[in-house]
Amino acid sequence: MGEVQLWVSTVEVGCFFALLGLAFLLVWQGTGDFNFAIGPLAMIAALCASWLVVERDAALWPSLAAGVALVLVLSAVIELGVVRPISSRTTHHLPVVVAIAAVLFALMQGAGVVFGRSSLPGQQILTFDPVTVGDSVVLPSTILLVVTTLVAFVLVIGWVRLTPSGRLLRAVGNNPDAANVIGLPVSRVRVTAFLVAGMLAALAGLLYAPKSGVGFDRGLTWTIAGFLVVVVGGTGTIWAPLVAGLLLGMLEIFLPYYFSASTPDYVLLVLALGFFAFRPEGLFMKRVRA
Amino acid sequence: MATPVESRADGGRASVALRRRVTPDLRSLALAVIGSATLLAWASQSAFNQDLLLLTGAYALIALGMYVPFVMVGKLSLAYGAYAAMGGYSVGLVASRSSWPLIVAWVLGALVAATAATILGLATRRLSNWYLASVTILFAVAFESWLQENDGITGGAGGIAGIRDFELLGWTLTRDQSVYAAVALVLVVGLAIDRMRLSAWGVTARTVREEPLVVETSGVRVPTLVLLALAFGAAVASLGGALFTSSVGSITPDTFTVHLVFLALFMPLIGGVGTPWGATLGAALVVQLTLNSSSISSSGTLILSVGVILMLLLSPNGLLTMADRLRRVIGDLLVRRPTR
Asked: Which of A27, A93, A94, A100 is the best mutation test for B, with the most CBs of B within 10 A?
């Protein structure tokens, strides 16, 4: 494998990580919770679409739409049916954390029961010829993933910075009690955060599955990947997950190639310890004018 | 203004409530002993049941290890699979590379796990909770990879097998005795943590969870208290790993994985946050649902996770808390006299 091909893979994996990280970050900013179900939601979108196409001979686009719709419904149910009722009944944060962990497992195992426990190939959405760059090949699925990621980041940044609902997201996330007192629509903002995050997770799963395949057991791995992106990037700005995702993608591709399969795990731990010691706010922090 | 009679009645009720808070939870201990006796009777039916009970003991120790930092202090560490693996590999390495008694391995494993937890806690001591969760999950992932890759030390993917039987002062435990000893160990650790919860240190630790600044301003070094809780929890979890490895005679990197810690999150809360015995009940339920339900073996984790969600919706503080509330309601109804 040539250097260029390694960089292509880096960008591909990095964009996938970045989308997952962005989904994590939006829920964090809007609710103050980490939605550990992001990985299973990405997996379910891809697995549902592949299952409909492969096992039920359904057409591609309706299958993709079904995957996204299922994830949106699940995202709303997680917030309205699990997180909100539990947080309203206890002052402790622990039951909410445990409930989200339970949702993670329920989604993974539920997907295994409904869609089967065998891995399925991801669906190729674009079918033009691969693009050749030097001695390397860029597949249509890679191009689609990269373009979608960039568009998603631009849209989300625009939404959060320029629209009233985006600014509400940050206001509610910063201080939900104060937001409640002054009459901001906290409930609507929380649901919106979960829905947008679910949409991003669904896109990530659908667009990355052609490279990796998808099985019910991917959910936890993808959750950990998205969580790590937020750890490295920090929660300061919306575009931090893009840089952190690409950085993690680079570690994930280059280190096993030149060293060993486990090297990224060690480097990540050392990086995190370094960040926490010297720059705990992550790569990017929110700057406030005095 | 309250009459003297009313004041006395209120004072009496308050003193009963106070006594309830500061005396050991003997009723829960009695229930734990009865539950253990029932499990022992069940385990005597087959070797498979004995294996499950030993695994329940290991999971219970991991859950009890999580109870102190997670439930009492409110600090979420996600490295308990790694801490249990440290206890297990400590037993494996001492058994395969030395003639030392295995009890030394138990102590070494606990020390190594406590040291690792302290270092990870130090790295995040002035930061919010999720930094600890982050660094500990990274550590758990890296540690699992290290166990897989280092054939020379850990045996790689195949792990360490053929570990000799547990021996103490020249006395080798039989299989039956190992099961009894495991249950006794869980009871002793559970009782110790229950006493710790009710001690002055435990009350301070629980206050840290709710009001860390108040505790800090009253002169308690909160970071040190948190580090102690994390180290203690890691040491207890390592005992779980040591117990399982000593009983089964082997360990591999897949025995205690990152996956386990997400399951372990359920355990302290399934039973209830009000008592550490809830964690042992949670461990028993997790083992039964994920490993001992042949008819639902493939979906045991699904049933468990859906059950946890339902339980948290009904009673966010756990089964035992819900049972305790029901008992009090029924008790109040039974003793209430009709008023004129």
From this structure: A94
Answer whether B89's CB lies under 8 Å from B154's CB.
Answer: yes
Distances (CA, A) of A73 to A85, A99, A158: 17, 18, 25
Task: Please give the Cα distance from B242 to B84 (Å, whole number).
Answer: 7
Tokens 């893979």 sit on residue: A9
Alpha-carbon distance of A87 to A4, in angstroms, equals: 49
d(CA B265, CA B294): 24
Yes or no, beta carbons of A109 and B312 under 8 Å apart: no
Q: Where are the alpha helices (DSSP H) in A32-163?
A: 38-56, 60-77, 84-89, 94-115, 140-162
Res B3: pLDDT: 42
Instruction: Tell me whether 0.85 is exceeded by the ipTM.
Output: no
Comparing CB atoms, the residue among B135, B209, B317 nearest residue A90 is B317
pLDDT, residue B87, reads: 96
**CB atoms closer than 10 angstroms to residue B340:** 2
Say what the pLDDT of residue A193 is. Answer: 93
Kind of pairing between the strands at A131-133 and A136-138: antiparallel
Asked if A228 and A248 count as a contact pair (C-beta separation under 8 A), the reply is yes
Whether the pLDDT of residue A146 is over 90: the answer is yes
Which alpha helices (H) appear in chain B, and where do they start and end?
Answer: 4-22, 26-43, 47-66, 80-97, 102-123, 129-149, 151-154, 175-198, 200-210, 212-217, 222-248, 258-271, 277-291, 300-314, 319-335
- Helix, strand or coil for residue A83? helix
DSSP-derived 3-state class of residue B172: strand
Which structure tokens are listed for A101?
């962990």
DSSP state of B294: G
Contacts of A79 in chain B (CB under 8 A): none
Phi, psi of A134 (to 5 degrees): 60, -125
Reduced to 3 states, what is the DSSP secondary structure of residue A214? strand
**Are the beta carbons of B124 and B131 closer than 8 angstroms?**
yes
φ, ψ dihedrals at A132, nearest 5°: -95, 130
Residue A17: what pLDDT? 96
> Of B240, B245, B255, whose CA–CA distance to B291 is shortest?
B255
Of B208, B227, B256, B270, the closest CA to residue B79 belongs to B256
Chain A residues within 8 angstroms (CB to CB) of chain B: 34, 82, 85-86, 89-90, 92-95, 97-99, 101-106, 108-110, 112-113, 117, 220, 224, 227-228, 231, 260-262, 265-266, 268-269, 272-273, 276-277, 280
Q: List, in sequence order, every residue forming a beta bridge with B160; answer none if it has no partner.
A: B251
Beta bridge pairs of residue A14: none
Q: Which of A98, A224, A276 sits opposite B312 (nearest CB)?
A: A98
The token duo for A269 is 């731990």
Pairing mode, strands A131-133 and B171-172: unpaired
- For the record, the structure tokens of B240 come out as 């779980």
Spatial contact of A247 and A232, defined as CB atoms under 8 Å apart: yes
Q: Please report which helix (H) or strand (E) contains residue A211, including its range.
A: helix A186-212
Residue B288, exposed/middle/buried by CB under 10 A (0-12, 13-18, 19+)? middle
pTM: 0.79
Q: Would you state the structure tokens that stand for residue A280, as one six-digit string?
A: 């705990």
d(CA B309, CA B166): 39
> What confidence tier does A66 reach under pLDDT thresholds 50, 70, 90?
very high
Separation in Å, CA of B227 to nearest CA in chain A? 16
